[in-house]
Design a protein that fits this description.
By secondary structure, the protein is an all-alpha fold. It has one domain. It is built from eight helices and no strands. It has helices at 12-20, 23-34, 36-42, 48-56, 63-80, 85-93, 104-110, 113-130. Helix 3 (36-42) crosses helix 4 and helix 5 packs parallel to helix 8 (113-130). It is globular.
Length: 131
C-alpha cells in the first residue's frame, strides 16, 4: 500500500516504494519500466531468466544486487512521474553529461553504490525537473 505523497515532493513515493517493496516487487516494477534485459544488466546477470526468477521469488539475488536494484527502482520511480518508459530506458543507457558522460546503468551496475547512487539520483531529479 502506497502512502499518499503531495505532488510538490517528486520522488518521495518512489523512495518509499523502493524501501517497502520486497525484492520481487522491485524487480517486477523495474522490468515493467526498463525491460528484462536492462534489469539483468543492472543485476549483473547475463540472462533474463534470472530476472524472471527474482520477480517470481524462486531465486534471490545477493544483497549487493538487491541494493543496486532498489536504487535503480528509486531512480526509475523519479523519472516515471514525468517521462515514458521508452525515455527512461534511453536515459538509463545513454551518456549523461551530469555523470561525466557515463550511462546511469553502467554506474549503477559497477560503481560503489554509496558514491554512485546519490549522483545518479541527483541526475534523475535534474532530468525530471529540467529535461
Amino acid at each position: 500500500m502506497s502512502i499518499p505523497v503531495p505532488a510538490s515532493q517528486p520522488g518521495h513515493r518512489a523512495y518509499a516504494d523502493s524501501v517497502r517493496l520486497d525484492t520481487g516487487g522491485i524487480v517486477t516494477g523495474l522490468r515493467e519500466i526498463l525491460g528484462a534485459r536492462l534489469v539483468a544488466y543492472l543485476g549483473r546477470v547475463s540472462n533474463t531468466r534470472s530476472v524472471r526468477e527474482w520477480a517470481e521469488g524462486s531465486r534471490a539475488p545477493g544483497a549487493d544486487v538487491v541494493q543496486r536494484l532498489r536504487t535503480s527502482y528509486y531512480v526509475a520511480g523519479i523519472l516515471i512521474e514525468c517521462e515514458s518508459a521508452k525515455t527512461i530506458q534511453a536515459w538509463f543507457q545513454g551518456m549523461n553529461p551530469e555523470l561525466d558522460d557515463q550511462s546511469p546503468a553502467a554506474l549503477l551496475r559497477g560503481g560503489p553504490l554509496d558514491e554512485i547512487g546519490p549522483k545518479v539520483i541527483s541526475a534523475a531529479r535534474s532530468f525530471a525537473a529540467h529535461g
